[in-house]
Amino acid sequence: MKKSFFKLLNTVNKKLLPKLSDKDPNSLTKIQKGILAYRYFVLVNSLD
């Protein structure tokens, strides 16, 4: 149940949230860093 929820959330994130992997993490704003951390958290939990 948990894994399928995170997989669904990951596909939604890919379509709605901006892709920040091509930018330097030191030049991101706090909001962009939060989005990046959130996307990472969802990705890691969907792979378990």
- Characterize the biggest β-sheet: none
List segments where confidence is low: pLDDT < 50 over at least 5 consecutive residues. none
Helix run count: 2
Mean pLDDT, rounded to whole units? 88
Strand portion: under 5%
Label the overall shape: elongated
How many β-strand runs? 0
| C-alpha end-to-end distance | 12 Å
Q: Any idea what the radius of gyration is?
A: 11 Å
* Structural classification: mainly alpha
Provide the succession of SSEs.
HH
What percent of the residues sit in helical stretches (DSSP H or I)? 55-70%
Protein name: SsrA-binding protein
Organism: Chryseobacterium endalhagicum
Question: How would you describe what is shown here?
Answer:
This is SsrA-binding protein. It is a single chain. The chain has 48 residues and is mostly helical. 69% of the residues lie in helices and 0% in strands. Helix 1 (2-16) packs antiparallel against helix 2. The two termini are 12 Å apart.
Question: Which helices and strands appear, and what pairs or packs with what?
Answer:
Layout: H1 2-16, H2 30-47
Helix pairs in contact: 1-2
Keywords, separated by commas or semicolons:
69% helix, 0% strand, 48 residues, mainly alpha
Provide a quick synopsis of the model.
The protein has 48 residues and is mainly α. It has 2 helices and no strands.
